[in-house]
Each structure stands twice: as C-alpha cells, then as structure tokens.
Amino acid sequence: MADPDLITRAAGGDPTAFQALVERHRSMVYRVAYQFAGNHHDAEDITQEVFIKVYRSLDRFRQDAQLTSWLYRIVMNACIDHRRRRGPVGGAASGEDAEQQILNTPEERPDPETRAYAGELGDLLEAEIGRLPQGQRIVFVMRHHQGLKLCEIADALGLAEGTVKRQLHAAVHRLRAALSAANVTAGGQA
Q1: What DSSP string runs through 148-178?
Q2: pLDDT digits (tens, 9 = 90+) for 73-102
Q3: pTM value?
Q4: Gyration radius of the chain's alpha carbons
Q5: List of residues 6+ apart from 139 with CB closer than 8 A
Q6: Collapsing DSSP states into helix, strand and coil, what is residue 104?
Q7: Is residue 13 left, alpha or beta, with left meaning phi > 0 and alpha meaning psi from -120 to 50?
Q8: Are the CB atoms for 148 and 140 separated by under 8 Å?
Q9: Which region holds residue 87: left if phi is over 0, alpha if psi is between -120 and 50, else beta?
C-alpha cells in the first residue's frame, strides 16, 4: 500500500496502517537521529518521539507534500529539542565517537593493511563529520548518507536550495581541510 493511502487510513484511526508507516520509515528516522545524537540510546529516544509527533499530527499532513520531507523536518526538530533538553555537552565530538564507526569494506577483500587504513580513515571521517556545525552536518548526512537531492533537503529543512548548497560546500571544504591536516590521502597516508 502506498504512503498516501496509509496516511489516510492511519489518520482515520487504523493502527495497522500507522504501524506499516512506522515500519517503512523507522530506519531512515533512526539513521538521521543517530547521526545527530551520536549514540544509540538518544537516537532511539528521538525516533520514538518523532513517531509520537507523527501520530498526533497525521491529520494535518498535506498530501501534496512528500512524506519523507515532512518526516525529516520532524526529525530535525526533535533532534534540536533533544539537544536543548540535554543542554550543552561539550561539543559534537565526545567519547561517543567510538560508537560512530564507518565500515569501509569494498566488494573485493583488500589486504589487511588496506583494511586497517580504511577503518582508520572511516573513524577519522566520522569524527570530523561529528565536529561539523549542526547545519552543515545534517545537510552533509542527508546528501551523502541518505542520498537525497538538494531540493529534497531544502524542502525537508525549510531552507532555500542555495542555502543548502552553501552548507554542503562548507561541510565538504571543512572535511577536506581536516583530512589534509591529518595528512590523509585517497590511497593511503601521505
């Protein structure tokens, strides 16, 4: 069943339709929340909060908008609210960085040295993504981890597409500079 049909049925009180929406979109909501929060516990809390908000406001959802854009906006607001409730936590890169690891395993099995380097590079890159300013980080994640188009990101965040482009450009520039400062090259350490 398509999202619009599920939304209509769920807004009418059908719990099965709402459960189907949750199951269909939960992983996307969790990934965004995890990227923002940096740990499983907070990401789970944010994900639950998002779906409570979705349930309470389904009757106000405009069927002419994309559900994923609407969900992204709700996730981002929930992440910001969560951060405010927790207060300042001493920067984005904390001890929770250990939980954020990228597994860079290509199709072919590389030699152990290459695999070790890829893991270190993934760890370094993920830590640097965590250090990006909030706006740049979420735009980068939505574009490069979620694969969204710039117009979809702009719509989801309520921003002009030019603002999204500037945020993305600034994020990429910062990441390149950080990798360069760490003396990292594409094929291995310099």
Answers
A1: --HHHHHHHHT--HHHHHHHHHHHHHHHHHH
A2: 888 888 878 877 876 544 444 333 323 333
A3: 0.54
A4: 18
A5: 153, 157, 164, 167, 168, 171
A6: coil
A7: left
A8: no
A9: left
